[in-house]
């Protein structure tokens, strides 16, 4: 009998340090009005700890909501493009931190699409019987890799993590249909270059971040709406059957445009980008955790999700929520506060990057 991958736990981790648009305007040529009108973002979080610590707190919250012993997990997947180190992976650190002894663990990098990609992979594993209890995490510390002298990209991103627990179930719930793809011909319009061209002996601290906004917007709308259409075709469902749209939180204008193209009314669309900016792979699980905790998700709801990220990766999925919408145990664990404000964390990076660009003669 085919199994389904029920969402039994959910949680998030948001760093306590908040950077507002007015804070950004103290060292960038920008304003609150400029940022809000173009992105919908009012503030974002800046982490004082690494990606694995963000992921660990989110994981513990999701496990608490599911009331699941970490030793019952047989797989941990962390979606991230900002790992603390190249080797070993973030997932193994989370496994160590939560005391999970028997799980396989790996990272998945599909940029902002990573969490839905991971959900797609994990669900297939549960359906085939290869796995029974899976921990999924999306975690990013993007503020450490941004070029803080570049207004167009610096204002967009923030740090955070979200997590879900998936468990095998006989009920027809969880990710019921999904479509993922990659528009590789345009992979260079969104890239961070410190891979094959990274010279460790002459590195000056500048990681080249290419972000062609208009091209990304155009391809994102096209890619996500096409993925949503394919999921609708596979399931035979329509927008009338959808209780909520929970998309990747990249840009409010993009979310609004996607809603119109998919004919999902604004009141059914979950948007929290104003509070956190784009947290890449973490946006989807954070949005789901908040929607569940705030009573937006109801028992048995049908939810459409759509994602888009570097690569250019893309995807959509139809998720059927189960009957439980409250955590079995409290899932609001938070990071302890750091000793620096968001500005105190970011301004030194801005000054160092500005100096590096000057040394390059630019």
TrEMBL record:
Main subcellular localisation? cytoplasm
Enzyme nomenclature, EC number = 2.3.1.180
The listed locations are: Cytoplasm
Q: Which GO terms describe its molecular function?
A: 3-oxoacyl-[acyl-carrier-protein] synthase activity; beta-ketoacyl-acyl-carrier-protein synthase III activity
The highest taxon in the source lineage is Bacteria
Ranges of residues in domain Beta-ketoacyl-[acyl-carrier-protein] synthase III C-terminal: 233-321
Q: In which pathway does it act?
A: Lipid metabolism; fatty acid biosynthesis
Role summary: Catalyzes the condensation reaction of fatty acid synthesis by the addition to an acyl acceptor of two carbons from malonyl-ACP. Catalyzes the first condensation reaction which initiates fatty acid synthesis and may therefore play a role in governing the total rate of fatty acid production. Possesses both acetoacetyl-ACP synthase and acetyl transacylase activities. Its substrate specificity determines the biosynthesis of branched-chain and/or straight-chain of fatty acids.
Give the protein's recorded name: Beta-ketoacyl-[acyl-carrier-protein] synthase III
What lineage is on file? Bacteria, Pseudomonadati, Pseudomonadota, Gammaproteobacteria, Alteromonadales
């Amino acid at each position: 009998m085919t199994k389904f991958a029920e969402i039994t736990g959910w949680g998030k981790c948001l760093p306590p340090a908040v950077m507002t648009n007015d804070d950004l305007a103290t060292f960038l040529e920008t304003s609150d009005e400029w940022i809000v009108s173009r992105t919908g973002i009012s503030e974002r979080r800046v982490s004082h700890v690494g990606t694995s610590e963000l992921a660990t707190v989110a994981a513990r919250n999701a496990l608490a909501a599911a009331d699941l012993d970490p030793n019952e997990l047989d797989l941990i997947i962390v979606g991230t493009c900002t790992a603390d180190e190249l080797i070993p992976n973030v997932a193994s650190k989370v496994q160590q931190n939560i005391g999970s002894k028997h799980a396989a663990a790996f990272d998945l990098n599909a940029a902002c699409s990573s969490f839905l990609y991971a959900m797609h992979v994990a669900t297939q594993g549960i359906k085939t019987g290869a796995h029974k209890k899976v921990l999924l995490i999306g975690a990013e510390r993007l503020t450490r890799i941004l070029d803080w002298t570049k207004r167009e990209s610096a204002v967009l991103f923030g740090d955070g993590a979200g997590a879900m627990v998936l468990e095998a179930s006989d009920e027809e719930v969880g990710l019921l249909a999904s479509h993922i793809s990659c528009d590789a011909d345009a992979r260079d319009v969104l890239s961070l270059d410190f891979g094959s061209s990274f010279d460790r002996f002459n590195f000056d601290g500048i990681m080249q971040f290419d972000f062609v906004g208009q091209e990304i917007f155009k391809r994102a709308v096209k890619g996500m709406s096409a993925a949503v259409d394919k999921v609708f075709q596979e399931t035979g469902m329509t927008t009338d059957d959808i209780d909520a749209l929970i998309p990747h939180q990249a840009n409010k204008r993009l979310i609004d445009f996607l809603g119109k193209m998919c004919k999902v009314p604004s009141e059914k669309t979950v948007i929290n980008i104003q509070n956190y900016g784009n947290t890449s792979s973490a946006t989807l699980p954070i949005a789901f955790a908040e929607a569940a905790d705030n009573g937006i998700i109801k028992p048995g709801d049908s939810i459409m999700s759509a994602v888009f990220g570097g690569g250019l990766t893309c995807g959509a999925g139809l998720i059927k929520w189960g009957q439980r919408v409250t955590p079995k145990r409290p899932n609001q664990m938070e990071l302890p506060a750091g000793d620096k404000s968001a500005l105190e964390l970011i301004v030194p990076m801005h000054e160092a990057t500005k100096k590096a660009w000057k040394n390059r003669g630019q």
